[in-house]
Amino acid sequence: MLSIKNIGRISKRYRHLRRYQQILGIIIKYGFENIIEAMNIDHYIESGLQLIPFVKAHEKVERLSKNQRIRLTLEELGPTFVKMGQVLSSRPDLVPPDLLIELTKLQDHVPSFSSEEVRAIIASEFGKPINTLFETIEHSPFASASIGQVHKAKLYNGDEVAVKVQRPGIRKTVEADLEIMLHIASIIEKNIVEVAFFRPVKIVEEFAKTLEKEMDYTIEASSMTRMAGHFKKDPAIKIPEVYPDYSSERVLTMEFI
Question: Residue 192 and residue 39: Cα distance in Å, rounded?
């Protein structure tokens, strides 16, 4: 389970202070300093936030629309915030139509992690060397995103498979970001009446539950297997076969199509 604390109930001296500073700095960078001012955030966290450079948004940023700036802010904030934007892009009950369109453009800008890390994660998950599981596995991923990346591999029975491996350290990153996100949502709910109506704390809590499921690949594997059963008699639909003996919470092995 994701370990997320409501940091509004902990202390004004916050343990993820550097990341908090970074997040607020990026929000200011894209011209949303009015939100930071309205939050009255120094009342809630006193240590170190005064060090954030309160700079005017760059001229190039100011020429962008507000919705473009929201998207770019989420992209620069990283995987957790990109995922939040992607979830909101499917919520027309919460997000205006023009912002919905912009959120659908969200992209994960993350580098792939090394094949050595991939091998170490797989070995750790199954308690055995990777060469006892796969005859071959390609060094470079053919797909990479914020939570994990996918490598083509071959089993010893000759089957070609796609192996999705979760990004190292991503759980700690997500937990820290969700704590900060929850705290910011609680401050906004208390200080900005126009936004409080949308219950941002509840939105973050529901998002955390969604992300928890996405980070457990056994849930995805179970869903794929169930869907395959539903459509096994339909020749127009093909669901990749899951290989449960080669899958775990952080590794998902499926038929390569």
Answer: 7
255 contacts 240 by C-beta, under 8 angstroms: yes
Whole-number Å distance between alpha carbons of 144 and 150? 6
Segment 74-97, tens digit of pLDDT: 999 988 999 999 889 988 988 899
Q: What's this model's pTM, rounded to 2 decimal places?
A: 0.81
φ, ψ of residue 169 to 5 degrees: the values are 75, 0
CA atoms of 105 and 68, how far apart (whole Å): 10
Number of Cα atoms under 13 Å in the Cβ half of residue 242: 19
Burial category of 126 from C-beta neighbours within 10 Å (exposed 0-12, middle 13-18, buried 19 and up): middle
Q: Are 110 and 146 in contact (CB under 8 A)?
A: yes
Residue (of 214, 95, 99) closest to 166 by Cα position: 214
Among candidate residues 225, 194, 213, the one with its CA nearest the CA of residue 83: 213
